Amino acid sequence: MPPAQRHPTMADVAERAGVSTSTVSRTLRGLSTVSPDVRARVEKAARELNFAVSRQAASLVTGRTGNVAVLVPTLDAWFMGAALSSLAPLLRAAGMELNVYVIPDLAERTSFFERLPARRNADALLVFSFDLTDEETARLDSLGIPVIYVSQHVEGRPSVYVDDVAGALHGTRHLLNLGHRRIAFLATQGASGFSFSSNERLLGYQQALTEAGVPLDDDLVTAVQVADRRGIAEALGTLLSLREPPTAIFAEQDEVAVASVRILRRTQLAVPERISVLGFDDQPLADWFDLSTVAQSAADIGREAGELALRLIEDSEDEHQRHVVLPTHVIPRATTAPVYRPQGEGEEGRG
Question: What mean pLDDT is predicted for residues 319-345?
Fold first, then answer.
């Protein structure tokens, strides 16, 4: 019986190509740090030896796992699904696998930060829309792998996010340019909201009013939870009971804006004829409901986060584009219109 044939190793490929085993690993994983000439030699040697790289072998040489971990508070939100749907194929094309950690409650969160599983099985960690404590951020700093913060700006750390301040400022300007001066702002809170975006969007709203010379009115700013339809209805009732009720509503998220439109129309208050409603995000439901909104691209955010992670895996000291800021833009649809003026109002002086 003939002896079993020995399978070629990465060292055999390196010897035939005249390079190091780490260069063979980088080449066969498709990384961009290998010159075209060296890549051609390695690929030729691998073909001649019928060698196929394994993830385990590459890990032994490079100390890498071939995995990228993602930390998210939920998978139910539109933003998470859209971002991950563009992130996963990007990583797959680079030969990387995606591990998703969903931490929906305090118990899961405590367990994750006690175990820090990403330390053992990932080359980078993407943190999506999390309100972390200083202690939790320090724990992530200790991982020894690139940690990229997504949909938020964390000082001194790699981040990918949209300019929420500019988005809310432009959205509020849209309403101001339609003649509105009493503009309410519906923020989100609790499990349905994320404080970084909430704070930035409120700031943009306030900046637009201030630059237009419109006094800030705390009575026009209220917080609701996305899934709490009764709470949204009560908030609208309070706003519409003010001595000077709003003529426009700017909701921090599209879900709240759509719920507001439905509640207002149910009470026979015409949108946008009597009151305008503007959202933020441009989720698919915004188009379905013909909702005016401030658009951000969750797919672009996921893609940019993945590309930044791949760059930092290759060179964790790379200072190029460690903060990626993406734009937003206003999409006017059927829920915003010029401010309603009762018949005859403003006619004085015409003749």
Answer: 87
